[in-house]
Design a protein that fits this description.
Elements: E1 2-10, H1 14-32, E2 35-40, H2 45-51, H3 57-64, E3 68-73, H4 92-102, E4 107-113, H5 126-129, E5 134-140, E6 150-155, E7 158-163, H6 169-184, E8 189-194, H7 200-213, E9 220-225, H8 226-235, E10 242-245, H9 247-259, E11 268-272, E12 278-282, H10 299-312, H11 316-331, E13 334-335, E14 345-346, H12 349-358
Parallel strand pairs: 1-2, 1-3, 3-12, 5-10, 8-9, 8-10, 13-14
Antiparallel strand pairs: 4-5, 4-11, 6-7, 11-12
The protein binds nicotinamide-adenine-dinucleotide.
């Protein structure tokens, strides 16, 4: 089958890591007989340099017309790059915020997976790591506290600030459905995280999640308070499959979960809307400190491409092949500099892409 993909290489290490993801996808094409048709799209600093703005309406239209967007990263050195002399709405990051809004990407998915070979990078004790862990955090991205009404006022000479946390049932239902659908492709367990002992918005969250759960009888689900979840992530991370939560709790928990896995160069992510469409990108930034040196770790971007195969194209076998190739490369002792350890072979960005592509098979 043919799949149409908009490709935003972006800035810094973006073009280097995206190139390797395309190399791996090209091997998937050969082995499994698919076609991936790419159209490059400018965003971030690369777009400012050409068009004077971080994202044009034409670029948005191209992304909207495709099956998915594969992205590297955008932005430059915030202290030295001329892009940061521009007003905030013209800076590189404004392009990404605009694109997320235009594509209605309300669900953010971040896996936290511990590779046996990278256990050393995990700050948890061996007895806690146990058999390892493999979870995803499904975070609501466009509602809640970060988008509610806020104000700072002064009352009788005392400054006072407030932010409001609002969710309506439609917003909760669509993210909950996405969470249960993802669980159906995994170990079929959802942990819905809230603060229902205190917050009304959490009590509604719980009610709606229970309603949605009725449509997914194969998926087991539980509710967990956010403070307990923060604790459980470092006490027994192996218990989680899909963590489903609102915007701010997800912001904090996804960083906690990713840190227990180790390197930023390994962390993939997806932002999804109500359809199969998604934007896939590594969790890290454009790493201007190492750009252009062919030393960045391309694995997060390659794993993001695997998520694109699984969640936007329903190509589970192909996604498995990419993930298994990554595992095999690590098992064979190859590492980029950021994850290098004793007795391993250090490789460049482009070599890592070659080694993973070589290991793709049915
Ligand atoms: P960063 O993630 O780019 O870099 C932090 C550290 O991690 C650096 O030392 C970098 O070398 C390292 N690193 C990141 N990705 C790596 C990889 N694949 N392989 C090896 N090492 C890697 O964060 P930062 O320095 O705070 O931000 C740099 C720029 O990236 C800024 O302009 C920021 O706004 C932007 N940014 C973009 C995105 C995005 O595109 N979604 C996300 C975060 C930051």
């Amino acid at each position: 089958m043919k799949y149409n993909v908009a490709v935003i290489s972006g800035d810094g290490i973006g073009p280097e890591i995206v190139e390797e993801a395309k190399k791996v996808l090209s091997k998937v094409e050969q082995v499994f007989g698919h076609t991936f048709a790419y159209e490059p799209v400018l965003m971030g600093g690369a777009s400012i340099d050409v068009h004077g703005v971080p994202l044009t309406d034409e670029a948005i239209a191209v992304c909207q017309s495709k099956d998915a967007v594969l992205m590297g990263s955008i932005g430059g050195n915030t202290a030295t790059s001329p892009w940061y002399q521009l007003p905030p709405e013209k800076r590189p990051e404004a392009g990404l915020l605009k694109l997320r809004k235009a594509l209605n990407l309300f669900a953010n998915l971040r896996p936290a997976y511990l590779y046996e070979e990278l256990k050393e990078a995990c700050p948890l004790k061996d007895e806690i790591i146990g058999e390892g862990f493999d979870m995803v955090i499904m975070r609501e991205l466009t509602g809640g506290l970060y988008f509610g009404e806020r104000k700072t006022i002064e009352e009788h000479g005392v400054r006072k600030a407030y932010d409001s946390l609002t969710y309506d049932e439609k917003e909760i239902r669509r993210i909950a459905k996405r969470g249960f659908e993802i669980a159906m492709k995994r170990r079929k367990k959802v942990t819905s995280v809230d603060k229902a002992n205190v917050l009304d918005s959490s009590r509604l969250w719980r009610t709606i999640v229970e309603e949605v759960a009725e449509d997914y009888p194969e998926v087991s689900y539980e509710h967990m308070l956010v403070d307990n979840c923060a604790m459980q992530l470092v006490k027994n991370p192996g218990q989680f499959d899909v963590i489903l939560t609102e915007n701010m709790f997800g912001d904090i928990l996804s960083d906690e979960a990713s840190m227990v896995t180790g390197s930023i160069g390994m962390l993939s992510s997806a932002s999804l809307n109500e359809t199969k469409f998604g934007l896939y990108e590594p969790s890290g930034g454009s790493a201007p400190d190492i750009a252009g040196q062919n030393i960045a770790n391309p694995i997060a971007t390659i794993l993001s491409a695997a998520m694109m195969l699984r969640y936007s194209f329903d190509l589970d076998q192909e996604a498995d092949a990419v993930e298994n190739a990554v595992k095999q490369v690590l098992k064979d002792g190859y590492r980029t500099i950021d994850i290098m350890s004793e007795d391993c072979t250090q490789v460049k960005t482009s070599q890592m892409g070659d080694l993973i592509a070589e290991r793709i098979h049915k």
